[in-house]
Design a protein that fits this description.
2 copies of one chain form a homodimer. Chain A is of the alpha/beta class. Chain A has 3 domains: 42 residues, 434 Repressor (Amino-terminal Domain), CATH 1.10.260; 144 residues, Response regulator (Rossmann fold), CATH 3.40.50; 144 residues, Response regulator (Rossmann fold, 3-Layer(aba) Sandwich). Helix content of chain A is 44%, strand content 14%. In chain A, the strands form 3 sheets. The first copy, chain A, has a 6-stranded parallel β-sheet with strand order 2-1-3-4-5-11. The longest helix of chain A has 17 residues. At the A-B interface, helix 3, helix 4, helix 5, helix 6 and strand 2 of A face helix 3, helix 4, helix 5, helix 6 and strand 2 of B. Strand 2 of chain A pairs antiparallel with strand 2 of chain B, so a sheet runs across the interface. The first copy, chain A, binds a DNA duplex (16 and 16 nucleotides) through helix 2 and helix 4.
Chain lengths: 364, 364
DNA sequence: TTGAAAGCGCTAACAC
DNA sequence: GTGTTAGCGCTTTCAA
């Protein structure tokens, strides 16, 4: 093959052009100091002239590593869905901010940490399976990757996790040889509940949970229940209400349901604690429409700390998940395991912190 | 090599296990229909048992394509910087929201569009050069990629752009064989300026620009100047003030400078138009501290539409850049060029829209 | 429909 | 310090 004639230049072209062997070209790129300066310059010059760019694939294949870490996250928006032309930009933004829930923050955290360790980041949102499933695609191109809970079927993950480092984020470990990182759902909800009781003197509390199959939502409820017990209040065995989707719409719906019920039945609760921010924000809207003042007549709290919580009025009291940190720690675990594949699987629990804002009465 | 004995299973292992040739295994993954159902099932079964995952590197090398698109974006935060333990979480968040300026939105846009076309997305923030520069790393692992303006030296980009599709985002084309997408900076600033004049009757306007080397900032200024001329106001040849970093701190600084100057000199302007939101938000803080009411005594506008603009009080009037769309269009251009490498370079200009909020007097 | 064999462009031993 | 030589794990003609 004559240098410069073919499509993209390779090490061979550069080597020929510079009058060295391909091994030397390779060295210049991998470990410049192992080559005499003069030789190195010749190679670099040739590479520049030819427009040579090393093939990541070839390097990866030969060296069995890619220099890339990965993330599989849930498909937060159907990319095929046509956006309704009727919603205003503002409204669309608000919705997006909410949807942006976790993923963006985690991506940012992982990107930063990856960069610090010299890795690039490959991201892909979950899609339905098949032999060419998402995970397989990601797994084949990275040195290790993180998976957000419930994005990938365990059976797809299992064979892959045997071959390269995988860390499970924000969920149960699923496979016992995985590293995994959780967030202190129990502690956070417990602290928030205690605050309502101790700082605001509330004692008729209604918890709105999610799908019983969601470990996060359940852990939060248990935190709530524990705080109730500790405060000498009746300890509920089940959330007062549940929604399965945990959306704003559902939050609004259950709130109206509760208000209707209270008019006839028992006294209305003094506070509603939601298993996530989205529902809580839906509730805020429902309460406003029904003329129930927040927080005077009803305190409202969420969980997650999504940006929208700071924009709504009243601003939402919540528990903030350290999502960026989750991403950063994920990378640290991956890097650690890459260096020492045999270390026993780690399990981290990241602390959370409550943000007391207007909807509980902490700010005007 | 005996199947199952070595580290990670390969096509050879699967083939042996299933009693077929490696070509057949390959076919099952690339084009299942070209293999008899019965054979296919045997292969799939073997693959599953062995925990076989195709190597993306090997596939890429053999097929000369990766199924991955890339993005190079500016390093929005130094990953090595220790976060000051003193700033509160709220403050840190606000800062982050601001910093999140473009990149996150573009990433989201690209991720969505990539997914729609069956690609994954590789992201990497810019880092200093060397033979192993960021671009080279990305370029070697993707089928095509987008570059945000001024993240990559033109000379690094040139050889790469000869070999694979590159689209330049939010900046001048730099290399004339690149596709590129810009945002209507001129139009947006012109519309916003006209609004201040026509809807609010303001006519003493001060424009705060950025680095003269920033094409965006300059185009915005020209839009401002054009609107002035069209309104019969004096047309400035230069911004009243400039900052080079365009940060909140700088916005605050120039605002105080202007207030100090006005006390002695000429009458104070009725409006300050900033070349970006960050500076405008800094200005809001400075004005508040100096007791200048916004918008009554001074209208303030930004440019970009960052989320923080909706959180600050008064909310910030601005021009919103369609960042997510930018990312989506970037992918469309890349995919198009991948399919037809010879089409002439495209140049898009995305429309923007002004968001009239409190800081110009449009909302209470 | 399936198999055999030749690379894809690089890295990594090992020689010199 | 530099060159030689095997592969890395797949895709892809070309035959059968």
């Amino acid at each position: 093959m004559v240098a410069g004639v073919s499509g993209t230049p390779t090490v061979y072209d550069v080597a020929e052009h510079a009058g060295v062997s391909i091994a030397t070209v390779s060295r210049v790129y991998r470990n410049p100091d192992s080559v005499r300066a003069q030789t190195r310059d010749r190679v670099m010059e040739a590479a520049k002239q030819l427009g040579y760019v090393p093939s990541g694939n070839a390097r990866g294949l030969a060296s069995r590593s890619t220099g890339v870490l990965g993330l599989c996250f849930p498909d937060y928006a159907d990319p095929d869905a046509e956006e309704s032309a009727e919603e205003t930009e503002e409204a669309r933004d608000a919705g997006d901010e909410a949807a942006m829930l976790y993923s963006d923050q985690i991506i940012r955290g992982m990107e930063r940490a990856s960069r610090r360790h010299g890795y690039a980041l490959l991201i892909a949102a979950s899609l339905a399976g098949g032999p060419e499933s998402l995970v397989a695609k990601v797994a084949g191109r990275v040195d290790g990757f993180a998976v957000m809970a419930r994005t990938v079927p365990t059976e797809d993950l299992e064979p892959i996790a045997r071959r390269l480092p995988v860390v499970m984020l924000a969920g149960p470990r699923e496979l016992d040889h995985l590293d995994h990182i959780e967030v202190a759902n129990f502690d956070g909800q417990r602290e928030l509940t205690r605050h309502l009781v101790e700082a605001h003197g509330l004692h008729r509390l209604a918890y709105v949970g999610g799908d019983p199959a969601s470990p996060d939502a359940e852990a939060r409820f248990r935190g709530f229940a524990a705080a109730c017990r500790e405060a000498g209040l009746p300890e509920p065995a089940e959330p007062a209400l549940r929604t399965s989707l945990m959306t704003q719409a559902e939050g609004r719906r259950v709130t109206e349901e509760l208000l209707d019920r209270s008019e006839t039945d028992a006294p209305r609760p003094q506070a509603m604690l939601f298993a996530n921010d989205q529902m809580a924000i839906g509730a805020l809207r429902a309460l406003e429409r029904r003329g129930v003042r927040v927080p005077e007549e009803m305190a409202v709290t969420g969980f997650d700390g999504i940006p929208l919580g700071q924009i709504v009025r009243p601003t939402l009291t919540t528990v903030r998940q350290p999502m960026r940190r989750l991403g950063e720690e994920a990378v640290e675990l991956l890097v650690r395991r890459l260096r020492a594949p045999e270390v026993t699987p780690a399990s981290m629990m990241l602390p959370v912190r409550a943000a007391y804002r207007s909807s509980c009465g902490c700010r005007p």
